[in-house]
Amino acid sequence: MDRTYADGVPDSALLILKVIDWAAVPVAAFALIHALLQRPDAYSAAERLTKPAWVGITAGATAALLLFSFAGTGWIFWMAGLVAALVYIVDVRPRLIEVQRGQRW
Fold this sequence. Notes:
The protein is an all-alpha fold. The protein has one domain (23-101). It is built from four helices and no strands. The chain has helices at residues 11-37, 40-45, 51-67, 75-101. Helix 1 runs antiparallel to helix 3. The chain is elongated and about 55 Å long.
């Protein structure tokens, strides 16, 4: 049986929250690095925001995930950072890759 803290939260739940909290940082860092490495014209060809905008968004997301915690008082900033990084990875990144590779037959 898990030990519990005074507020009744078991150790295993806190461990899971900590893993989620720290797993989000490499995701945002990957999004930032990918945004930095892409050609500026690919963003306009993919009909997305400009490269400086996405670099700023992903840099802010990375900073938010580093500075705030999911289990802390700034969780809303942490969540906004995670959502911004995931939007880049799920929506922008595939379009950039598609535009730069060209249409495949």
